[in-house]
Amino acid sequence: METRDFLVIGGGVVGLSIARELKRRRPDASVALLDKEDGPARHGSGRNSGVLHAGFYYTADSLKARFTRAGNRAWTEYCRERALPLRACGKLVVATKSSDLPVLDELLKRGRANGVPVESVDAQAARAIEPRARTIERALWSPSTATVDPAACLAALVSDAAREGVDLRWGEAYAGRDGRVVRTSKGKLEAGFVVNAAGLYADVVARDFGFSRRYRILPFKGLYLYSDEPAGAFRAHLYPVPDIRNPFLGVHFTVAVDGRAKIGPTAIPALWRENYGGLSGFRAPELAEIVLRQAGLFLRGGGAGFDFRRLAWEEVRKNSRRVMTGLAAALADGVKPGDYRRWGKPGIRAQLINVESKTLVTDFVLEGDARSLHVLNAVSPGFTCAMPFAAHVVDRVEAAAGR
Q: How far, in Å, CA of 336 to CA of 50, rounded?
């Protein structure tokens, strides 16, 4: 039987970053990474918007605040060192109604508390940054928000991990465990310590180890509409003021690394974990479990800051190009439905829910013991946070394992 000192389950951006950090700290240790797909970027990491967030949405006491700020800097440096595509376009958060203004003030306060470059600008200054921006009185400007190419970033991480000595085992699925032995689709592997970064299936894997008792993954499908306008039609990302009680940021304009724009995303409740389209990834037990949970949330209505009924209705409506472009038109001048005809490939957000309190979990969640650690929630902006979050995970691994 093969043995490894460390086994990481999941080859997305978080899993790859953790595997690299383990190998960096323990160069003599054997580190294996297991993923059921035949290569990287098949799920959340490869279907990411590519936005490098700055870190002003989150309260200063959250892990997200710390990791987003540090992750933005880490990715910017990484992309520049490796000549990967990077567009430092910045972000404007604009107000569409007067009730948005106090929230803008709160975001400014959070950004400053988090040490993030952010400033309040009046409507005239906002239009100097992005000539098509529409805002009431003022907007929030985040100059450090940028865009990367997620697929190029993942390819670089894979190359680095392989060069550094990580055993990358693509096309090998986790199948269960027997004590310290992990069963896979290709055999058995004895692991000294297991790190679960399985994304959409993190809660399933964690339950095999006795964790995630209070938590389940609730999948949400995200879609973007791509603009046919030429590159440069927008200079900066344009975002609405969010509902800061929930983790979804609303329909916005994203400027990709090639300079072209897209609007979205949706956050449509998915029917199973890999419900990308048609019957792709269909699993009947998942359908039954997730639909039952959604039905319970729907019947419950609002409460604890999370109104699933309202959210589901609003998001399902966004399947309409007319609705999507209408929401986008509130943020920018000259938005024509005819310019937005192409839907991009869907992504699934692995959103953790506390099944006891019936609330969405908005920060990172780790559970584990002396033999395993489980990344239950690496929700957006998980891509931005991946590198400093990986260092935090490995700190926990070393503490748990007494290393």
A: 24
E-strand stretches of 245-379: 252-255, 261-264, 268-269, 340-343, 347-354, 359-360, 365-368, 372-377
Phi-psi region at 358: left, alpha or beta (left = phi > 0; alpha = psi -120 to 50): left
Before 265, cis peptide (omega within 30)? yes
CA-based nearest residue to 69, from 130, 128, 9, 114? 114
Measured N-to-C along each axis, helices 382-401 and 13-25 cross at an angle, to the nearest 10 degrees, of 40
What's the confidence (pLDDT) of residue 81?
97
**What residue has token string 């928000």?**
145
Alpha-carbon Rg for the chain, nearest whole angstrom, is: 21
pTM beyond 0.85: yes
**What does the pLDDT look like over 225-275, one tens digit per residue?**
999 999 999 999 999 999 877 768 889 999 999 999 999 999 999 999 999
What is the Cα–Cα distance from 391 to 394, expressed in whole angstroms?
5
